[in-house]
Write a structure and sequence with these properties.
binds adenosine-5'-diphosphate; 17 strands; nine-stranded mixed sheet; Rossmann fold; three-stranded mixed sheet; 2 domains; alpha/beta; 384 residues; GMP Synthetase, Chain A, domain 3
């Protein structure tokens, strides 16, 4: 099999030959393969495994052998280990909630009985920016679609209660809001589940929320939407450092936050403030995305309009992962305005697809690592 023929299903099949000696069941059947993403010959696998060097090395060797035997390249293979989840009841698997941002006793991993929340969501990732207009919503939508294209079940919560853009970006204008019982039903479009306040209010009315109202509006969107089981919930936050991120951090245990920024110095100053806000709220920062990084002209040349690389340098300075850059692209803008984000992966040029796929994979990787820090160790696996 050539790398071009490497598929997620093929890799999963190969991993089925790796058995846990104590149960004689394979690691896929045991649900220990927490992620398997394949794109352009790049293979990214996350496996739940006890925190034991020898066991992990044995497993790494076994996986590497299976993937390279299929034609995969060692240099394009990423294997991460996450700590196995504690055996849980259905109730315990609900998203862990924080009672309050200041609560030091709440361990990420234990749901608070009676607390509000979103059941059955593996990773919650917030997308923030220091200021508006840098492409935060565009990145949120494309990240959600990118993750769905990798086979994940994804929800997108448009948490920008002051300027919701999901109705346009996802083309929700002609869809009616459905309510069952007292729960809002998600809009299922472009392979993702979504909810936005933009479908609950008059689109032409200014959305002026005082602190407690902003808190209530966001809380209601989170709690009263029927998300179902999700691998990822992406939350598109309002720009800046206001009430909504605070409410979010109090309500939910996030896997982490992504900060979007354009390359200019002024944008970076705002982005640093957003990073500091997440850190103050004890939300791990998964990394920085540089949007509108550069422009490709009709002559095929790349133009660094805003000074490409600025956000990457900022990430380095802050000791944060750089998650990728997205070029300025007219098709992306058109697809955003027409509410057709999937076309960014098929009809906006190879460069755009590559940058969005790379961004998605980097965020998946960082989420797996952050998730590993959150989970607790319970030894279960020995490998044959
Ligand atoms: P924010 O959420 O930060 O306010 P948006 O995502 O709404 O910003 O983007 C602002 C405008 O810029 C939108 O019209 C969007 O289509 C456009 N845009 C964002 N990123 C790009 C890009 N990489 N190339 C072209 N247009 C972009």
């Amino acid at each position: 099999m050539t790398p071009a023929q490497l598929t997620k299903e093929g890799v999963l099949d190969a991993l089925r030959s790796i058995k846990d000696t104590s149960t004689d069941r394979d690691i896929v059947a045991l649900d220990l393969v927490k992620k398997c993403a394949v794109c352009d010959g790049f293979v990214s696998i996350a496996v739940a495994c006890v925190d034991d060097k020898q066991t992990r090395e044995g497993l790494r060797e076994a996986i590497t052998h299976r993937v390279t035997s299929m034609g995969g390249e060692r240099s394009k293979l990423s294997i991460e280990f996450v700590n196995p989840e504690k055996p849980t009841t259905t109730h315990d698997r609900s998203v862990p909630l924080k009672q309050a941002a200041s609560s030091k006793t709440t361990s990420a991993g234990s749901a608070q009985p009676g607390s509000p929340g979103i059941p059955d969501v593996k990773h919650i990732i917030a997308v923030g920016a220091g200021k508006g207009g840098v492409g935060k919503s565009t990145i949120s939508v494309n990240l959600a679609v990118g993750l769905a294209r990798q086979g994940h079940t994804v929800g997108l919560l448009d948490g920008d209660i002051y300027g919701p853009s999901a109705p346009t970006l996802l083309g929700l204008d002609n869809l009616d809001t459905q309510v069952r019982g007292n729960m809002l039903q998600v809009f299922y479009v472009h392979g993702i589940k979504s909810m936005t306040i933009g479908k609950l209010v008059d689109p032409e009315k200014p959305l002026i929320w005082r602190g407690p109202m902003a808190h209530g509006a966001f809380k209601q969107l989170v709690e009263q939407t029927e998300w179902g089981a999700l691998d990822y919930l992406i939350i598109d936050l309002p720009p800046g450092t206001g009430d909504v991120p605070l409410t979010m951090a109090q309500m939910l245990s996030l896997t982490g936050a992504v900060v979007v920024c354009t390359p200019q110095k002024v944008a970076q100053d705002d982005a640093v403030r957003a990073v500091r806000m997440f850190q103050q709220l004890q939300v791990p920062v998964l990394g920085i995305v540089e949007n509108m990084s550069y422009f490709i002209g009709d002559d095929g040349k790349e133009y660094d309009i805003f000074g490409r690389g600025g956000a990457e340098m900022m990430a380095q300075r802050l000791g944060l992962p750089f998650l990728g850059s997205v070029p300025i692209n007219m098709k992306l803008r058109e697809h955003s305005d027409s509410g057709e984000p999937t076309k960014n992966f098929t009809d906006a040029g190879e460069m755009m697809r590559e940058s969005l796929d790379k961004l998605t994979m980097n965020i998946e990787r960082q989420a797996a690592i952050a998730g590993m820090h959150k989970s607790k160790v319970t030894p279960t696996l020995t490998v044959s």
